[in-house]
Write the C-alpha coordinates for this entry.
Amino acid sequence: MSQLSVKKAVSETAQLVAKDPKNGMLVYKANTTWQGDVKSSAQIRNFEPLIIDEPAAFGGGDTAVSPADLILAALGSCQEIMYSALASTMDIPLDEVSVKLSGKLDLRGLLGMGDDDQIPPGFQSISYETTIKSPANDEDLKRLIAAVEKQCPILDTLQRPISVTGKAVTENTLVT
Protein backbone atom coordinates (compact mmCIF):
# COMPACT_ATOMS: atom_id res chain seq x y z
CA MET A 1 0.00 0.00 0.00
CA SER A 2 1.39 3.39 -0.94
CA GLN A 3 1.56 6.42 1.34
CA LEU A 4 -1.25 7.91 -0.78
CA SER A 5 -3.45 4.87 -0.07
CA VAL A 6 -2.68 5.12 3.65
CA LYS A 7 -3.57 8.82 3.58
CA LYS A 8 -6.88 8.06 1.87
CA ALA A 9 -7.78 5.28 4.33
CA VAL A 10 -6.87 7.38 7.38
CA SER A 11 -8.73 10.42 6.04
CA GLU A 12 -11.87 8.40 5.28
CA THR A 13 -11.80 6.83 8.73
CA ALA A 14 -11.30 10.24 10.38
CA GLN A 15 -14.31 11.60 8.47
CA LEU A 16 -16.49 8.69 9.61
CA VAL A 17 -15.45 9.19 13.24
CA ALA A 18 -15.96 12.97 13.02
CA LYS A 19 -19.45 12.35 11.64
CA ASP A 20 -20.36 9.93 14.43
CA PRO A 21 -18.01 9.14 17.35
CA LYS A 22 -19.58 5.67 17.59
CA ASN A 23 -17.75 4.87 14.35
CA GLY A 24 -14.50 5.19 16.28
CA MET A 25 -15.31 2.59 18.92
CA LEU A 26 -13.47 -0.67 18.24
CA VAL A 27 -13.23 -3.89 20.20
CA TYR A 28 -10.18 -6.05 19.66
CA LYS A 29 -10.43 -9.73 20.59
CA ALA A 30 -8.09 -12.67 20.93
CA ASN A 31 -8.61 -16.20 22.19
CA THR A 32 -5.69 -18.13 23.59
CA THR A 33 -5.41 -21.85 24.30
CA TRP A 34 -2.79 -23.60 26.40
CA GLN A 35 -0.85 -26.13 24.34
CA GLY A 36 0.97 -27.83 27.24
CA ASP A 37 4.11 -26.99 29.17
CA VAL A 38 4.56 -23.21 28.67
CA LYS A 39 3.26 -23.03 25.12
CA SER A 40 0.05 -21.37 23.93
CA SER A 41 -1.68 -20.53 20.70
CA ALA A 42 -3.57 -17.32 20.03
CA GLN A 43 -6.41 -17.02 17.58
CA ILE A 44 -6.74 -13.45 16.38
CA ARG A 45 -9.44 -12.64 13.83
CA ASN A 46 -9.15 -15.00 10.83
CA PHE A 47 -5.39 -15.30 10.86
CA GLU A 48 -3.43 -18.50 11.31
CA PRO A 49 -2.99 -19.23 15.02
CA LEU A 50 -0.01 -17.47 16.56
CA ILE A 51 2.16 -19.81 18.63
CA ILE A 52 3.67 -18.43 21.83
CA ASP A 53 6.42 -20.23 23.75
CA GLU A 54 9.01 -19.42 26.37
CA PRO A 55 12.78 -19.75 26.25
CA ALA A 56 14.36 -22.86 27.77
CA ALA A 57 15.16 -20.91 30.97
CA PHE A 58 11.38 -20.81 31.64
CA GLY A 59 10.83 -24.45 30.69
CA GLY A 60 9.86 -23.71 27.12
CA GLY A 61 11.08 -25.09 23.87
CA ASP A 62 12.01 -21.63 22.53
CA THR A 63 10.01 -22.48 19.40
CA ALA A 64 8.22 -19.15 19.16
CA VAL A 65 8.09 -15.65 20.61
CA SER A 66 7.23 -15.14 24.27
CA PRO A 67 4.48 -12.91 25.68
CA ALA A 68 7.17 -10.40 26.70
CA ASP A 69 8.52 -10.39 23.13
CA LEU A 70 5.00 -9.69 21.88
CA ILE A 71 4.69 -6.60 24.10
CA LEU A 72 7.89 -5.15 22.64
CA ALA A 73 6.85 -6.07 19.09
CA ALA A 74 3.41 -4.54 19.64
CA LEU A 75 4.95 -1.24 20.74
CA GLY A 76 7.50 -1.12 17.93
CA SER A 77 5.07 -2.05 15.18
CA CYS A 78 2.43 0.36 16.51
CA GLN A 79 5.00 3.16 16.43
CA GLU A 80 5.92 2.32 12.84
CA ILE A 81 2.27 2.17 11.79
CA MET A 82 1.55 5.52 13.42
CA TYR A 83 4.58 7.09 11.71
CA SER A 84 3.27 5.86 8.37
CA ALA A 85 -0.33 6.91 9.00
CA LEU A 86 0.44 10.33 10.46
CA ALA A 87 3.21 11.12 7.98
CA SER A 88 0.77 10.43 5.17
CA THR A 89 -1.85 12.79 6.58
CA MET A 90 0.78 15.44 7.30
CA ASP A 91 2.27 15.09 3.78
CA ILE A 92 5.65 14.16 5.21
CA PRO A 93 7.53 11.67 3.02
CA LEU A 94 9.04 8.62 4.74
CA ASP A 95 11.74 6.37 3.33
CA GLU A 96 12.18 4.12 6.34
CA VAL A 97 11.10 3.69 9.96
CA SER A 98 12.48 1.09 12.34
CA VAL A 99 12.33 0.66 16.10
CA LYS A 100 14.78 -1.10 18.43
CA LEU A 101 13.25 -2.01 21.79
CA SER A 102 14.46 -3.38 25.08
CA GLY A 103 12.57 -4.41 28.20
CA LYS A 104 14.09 -5.05 31.63
CA LEU A 105 12.54 -7.82 33.69
CA ASP A 106 13.62 -8.99 37.16
CA LEU A 107 12.92 -12.72 37.42
CA ARG A 108 12.61 -12.49 41.21
CA GLY A 109 9.20 -10.85 40.75
CA LEU A 110 8.01 -13.45 38.25
CA LEU A 111 9.21 -16.25 40.55
CA GLY A 112 7.56 -14.72 43.64
CA MET A 113 10.88 -14.01 45.30
CA GLY A 114 10.36 -10.30 45.89
CA ASP A 115 10.19 -8.73 49.35
CA ASP A 116 6.79 -7.21 50.14
CA ASP A 117 5.80 -7.21 46.45
CA GLN A 118 8.41 -4.56 45.71
CA ILE A 119 9.70 -6.42 42.68
CA PRO A 120 7.00 -6.50 40.01
CA PRO A 121 6.68 -9.65 37.88
CA GLY A 122 6.42 -7.62 34.68
CA PHE A 123 8.75 -5.26 32.90
CA GLN A 124 10.39 -2.71 35.14
CA SER A 125 11.18 -0.53 32.16
CA ILE A 126 10.89 -0.49 28.40
CA SER A 127 13.03 1.66 26.16
CA TYR A 128 12.99 2.19 22.44
CA GLU A 129 14.89 4.02 19.75
CA THR A 130 13.13 4.91 16.53
CA THR A 131 15.14 5.58 13.39
CA ILE A 132 13.41 7.67 10.75
CA LYS A 133 14.75 8.23 7.26
CA SER A 134 13.02 11.03 5.42
CA PRO A 135 13.88 13.93 3.14
CA ALA A 136 11.59 16.15 5.26
CA ASN A 137 13.00 19.08 7.20
CA ASP A 138 13.70 18.93 10.94
CA GLU A 139 10.66 21.03 11.86
CA ASP A 140 8.27 18.67 10.04
CA LEU A 141 9.94 15.62 11.55
CA LYS A 142 9.68 17.10 15.05
CA ARG A 143 5.92 17.66 14.49
CA LEU A 144 5.59 14.07 13.27
CA ILE A 145 7.49 12.64 16.23
CA ALA A 146 5.39 14.66 18.69
CA ALA A 147 2.17 13.48 17.03
CA VAL A 148 3.23 9.81 17.11
CA GLU A 149 4.32 10.05 20.75
CA LYS A 150 0.93 11.56 21.62
CA GLN A 151 -1.29 9.31 19.50
CA CYS A 152 0.32 5.84 19.50
CA PRO A 153 -2.30 3.58 21.18
CA ILE A 154 0.12 0.91 22.41
CA LEU A 155 2.52 3.50 23.86
CA ASP A 156 -0.45 5.12 25.57
CA THR A 157 -1.67 1.76 26.90
CA LEU A 158 1.74 0.97 28.38
CA GLN A 159 2.19 4.41 29.94
CA ARG A 160 -1.29 5.00 31.36
CA PRO A 161 -2.95 2.97 34.10
CA ILE A 162 -5.94 1.21 32.54
CA SER A 163 -8.69 -0.98 33.88
CA VAL A 164 -8.01 -4.68 33.35
CA THR A 165 -10.73 -6.98 34.62
CA GLY A 166 -11.04 -10.70 34.47
CA LYS A 167 -12.34 -13.85 36.03
CA ALA A 168 -11.25 -17.44 36.26
CA VAL A 169 -13.84 -20.16 35.78
CA THR A 170 -13.29 -23.69 37.04
CA GLU A 171 -15.43 -26.69 36.16
CA ASN A 172 -17.93 -26.04 38.92
CA THR A 173 -17.37 -22.56 40.29
CA LEU A 174 -16.49 -19.04 39.38
CA VAL A 175 -13.35 -17.73 41.03
CA THR A 176 -12.77 -13.98 40.86
User: Anything to note?
Assistant: The longest helix spans residues 67-89. The chain is about 35% helix and 20% strand. The CA atoms of residues 150 and 156 lie 8 Å apart.
